TrEMBL record:
Species name: Acetobacterium fimetarium
InterPro entries reported for this sequence: NIF_FeS_clus_asmbl_NifU_N
Positions of the NIF system FeS cluster assembly NifU N-terminal domain: 2-123
Gene3D superfamilies membership: 3.90.1010.10
Designated name of the protein: Iron-sulfur cluster assembly scaffold protein
One Pfam family it belongs to: NifU_N
Lineage: Bacteria, Bacillati, Bacillota, Clostridia, Eubacteriales
Amino acid sequence: MEYTEKVIENFSCPKHVGELEDANGVGQVGSPACGDIMKIFLKINDEDIIENASFKTFGCGAAVASSSMATDMIIGKSIEEAGKLKNSDVVDALGGLPDVKIHCSVLAAEAIQAAIQDYKTKKA
Ligand code: FES
């Protein structure tokens, strides 16, 4: 399978790249499949709404495209809604990924969950 236009677009001009200075939820996961690393930064307000999100990755192009799309999808959402985001939702939004690249989208989804968990732990 070839990469879709959406994947190429999100890879060549990724949104929300870098570290968020004022992040109050940070999550990092590594992929057992390839050894790559993904870090997600979330700025969550008092109403538990994600005001901003960004990512840093030592991952491949599909990981960049997945996290660009995933961060875009959760901005403006509650942490409850964002926590339900599955990697398949990200893959669908990208118009599909080659089978060997599905695990890259898992990294993005898992790092978001880890960042939400980090926020909840700090808040508790
Ligand atoms: Fe490792 Fe894609 S191959 S994140």
